[in-house]
Amino acid sequence: MAVLDVVTFPHPVLKQKCSEVTRFDADLHQFLDDMAETMNEADGIGLAANQVGEALRIFLMDVPTNRGSNEKEVKTTGRIEVINPKIVGQRGEMKYEEGCLSFPGMSEFVTRAAEIDLEYQDRTGAAQKLTAKGLVAVCIQHELDHLNGITFVDRLSPFKRKIAMREYLRQNQDVIEDQARREKLKARRAQQNVG
Ligand code: CO
After folding, report:
1. Exposure of 40 by Cβ count < 10 A (0-12 exposed, 13-18 middle, 19+ buried)?
2. Domains and CATH numbers, the chain
3. How many angstroms separate the alpha carbon of residue 195 from the centre of ligand 1?
4. pTM given for the model
């Protein structure tokens, strides 16, 4: 298993519409294990494949289900691997303050459906179904947006987005410049390998 690099905005892969997974093989299982380790390490409750640079329709989640209660032990959904997801039903509306591993330091209120029905495939390719509400539903909608090249900032009003982005870019200048340098190096190396 390996911890993968989580890309931060404005990495172009975050704007990419991800492709369906068609092969449920050992390579996929390795990738899912790596994603799980990456999500754990980053203390995330959800992680989309394009956040680690692979434009595939995959996300993982492990969402607390007793947040806000006084219980010391945090209960979660357990890790759920979601492949080729489709929201087939949605009800109600809720507002939740979301964050995103690709936008370090940013958190903003986003309005989404309060309850959703999801169809997806597991790592064997078998069809699965679940109904989720509250934070689990929020997480699914946030991650599914990622797979369509949409981030939670795109869900804000233009005015709020402008303020949030200005603050984000100010706070993360070094990280963003570092990432751009690494991407340039990678592109140059790829070019050299071809020629
Ligand atoms: Co995110």
Report:
1. middle
2. 12-156 (3.90.45.10)
3. 36
4. 0.93
